[in-house]
Amino acid sequence: MAKPITHIARTPVTEKERQDQAVESVMEVLGQNADGIQETIKLLQELHKSGILGALNAAVEAKEEIAKIVVGQVGRPPVTNMINNAMAAAGELTAMNPETTKKLMSGLAKGLQKAEEGIRAEAAIGIFDLIKALRDPDVNRAVAFGINLLKGVGEGLKD
Asked: Residues 17-51: pLDDT tens digits?
């Protein structure tokens, strides 16, 4: 009767065989993802040609210095004031009716266009022209809006 096998001798894998297996594995992945890898290479080439890749590499290499500058700048009072103002403005914008904001922005764009046309015309406006303009429903609507806006701002400034 034969002796039972109690120990299996494994052949040691050499460093060269390990590297060959790794290269074979990488080649298999490359073959499976050829299109994506080619697109990635094209992207890297474009980033390199435009100088963006070099700038990104420099930024990554200088990350500690950049972080110090950013932290130093963010701590300055003008920057913190700007951040606080932006947050306050964003908070107020969330309370506004989007349709009203859209109307206002549209009216502002049209108003700027009309103002530009008026500047090009170089027409002088007298007191009677102002009185006549107030009879125009569009002008009257804008003046009423402005007066109500000023009233609201004044009320807000009381608080």
From this structure: 899 899 999 999 999 999 999 999 999 999 999 99
Which of 148, 154, 158, 135 minimizes the C-alpha distance to 100? 148
Alpha-carbon span 141 to 130, nearest angstrom: 14
Q: Which amino acid, 24?
A: E
pTM for this model (two decimals): 0.44
**For 93-110, how does the pLDDT look when each residue is reduced to its tens digit (9 = 90+)?**
888 888 988 988 999 999
Exposed, middle or buried, 104 (CB in 10 Å: 0-12/13-18/19+)? middle
CA distance 84 to 78: 10
**Gap between the Cα atoms of 100 and 85, Å rounded:** 22
